[in-house]
Amino acid sequence: MDVTISKQSIKPPFSLLKYTFVIVPIVSGLDKFTNLLTNWEQYLNPGIKDMLPFSTATFFMIVGVIEIVAGILVFIKAELWKMNSGRCWVYIS
Q1: Whole-structure pTM value
Q2: Distance in angstroms (rounded) separating the CA atoms of residues 23 and 26
Q3: How far does CA 44 lie from the centroid of its chain?
Q4: Measured between alpha carbons, how far is 50 from 27 in angstroms, rounded to an integer?
Q5: What is the pLDDT along the chain (93 residues), one digit of tens a residue?
Q6: Quick check: 71 and 29 in contact, CB under 8 A?
Q7: Which residues make Cβ contacts (< 8 Å) with residue 86, sequence separation at least 6?
Q8: Distance between CA atoms of 32 and 58, rounded to whole angstroms?
């Protein structure tokens, strides 16, 4: 009985965190391509800008792809954790 109550009380915060850590990196990553929310190039240190072998726009596109992949991985890993959490409860108890 206690396990069921615990799972029910954890589900809303877990879902909120999961969707936050999925949506925010994906939206931020997409914005690196569009610059709708901000001009990302102004946030790069000029010293680093001079060391890059490519333009700052290319750098931020690479960063955007990494952020999108990170958001997708969080979504996939959260789903895998949810599917395997029942097994963890069996092993713990």
Answers
A1: 0.72
A2: 5
A3: 21
A4: 28
A5: 555 656 677 777 778 888 888 999 999 999 999 999 889 889 899 999 999 999 999 999 999 999 999 999 888 887 666 655 555 444 444
A6: yes
A7: none
A8: 10
